[in-house]
Specification:
Number of helices: 5
Number of strands: 10
Radius of gyration: 25 Å
Distance between the termini: 38 Å
Helix content: 25-40%
Structural class: alpha+beta
Largest sheet: 10 strands, antiparallel
Length: 275
Amino acid sequence: MNPFTITGIILDGAGTACMAAGLALSGEARAPLLITAAPLMLTGVIFVLIGVRLGKILGRSPRILRFGTPATATVLRIGETSVTINNAPVFEFDLEVERPEGSTYRASLKQVVPRMLVGAVLPGHRVAVKFDEAAPDNLAIDWSVPPRPEELARPAPELKDEVDIDLVARENRRRAADLLAHGRRGTGRITSAKEMGTLGDLGLAEAGEEGSDDQAVLFGLDVKLPGRSPFSTSVLHRVPGHLTGRVGPGLEVEVAADRDDPQHQIAIDWSLLAL
């Protein structure tokens, strides 16, 4: 249990004790005890509710990490939540969990990511998790075991059907080179990332063509361009082979956007990324 839950339980206990004492006594002492009991119990309930909410954000109860069943999971999606705890960001994860006996299931959770691991865990990574046998959706990522970057080369399973690839490709109909040469320059912050497969797999490049083995990643971006309000968009973008597994949520990138349609025609300038 976290400190909020513990404090709430203590306050509820104190309030209950005051209530019991007030009901048992008579005379002048009764009223003050009953008056004291109500705010103590109400405050205790509030703290318990905060503790439950905080426990979910922190990755359920730490008890799961101590006593849960060990397993491995593939990261399907990572998204920002705009929440930080002790300067560490909270991310939302969609996972495919593989139980020890081999069966799998999908689960989602929000969990703090240690600052040293921000950018080091991406879609397609394998991570260690622990889950409750009685309630498998109650799970937490075990950051004491490093994510496995050697799994990054393969796409996250079964994600391609979740996005209309052709539509995304049409919306980004101008070549990235043209946008980078003539578009309006700005900055972007990656908020989510889904590996969709290689350009060849998706039919966006001919088999054997240079770059056909590069990954296509669906990025969520918060974009800032000079002279206009910040906006959010999605872009299906090629990731060069040397950057595979090194770009993900929280990363700041340079972008170039079409001057007339910046939200749908935008490119990331990987050449300026210092990693």
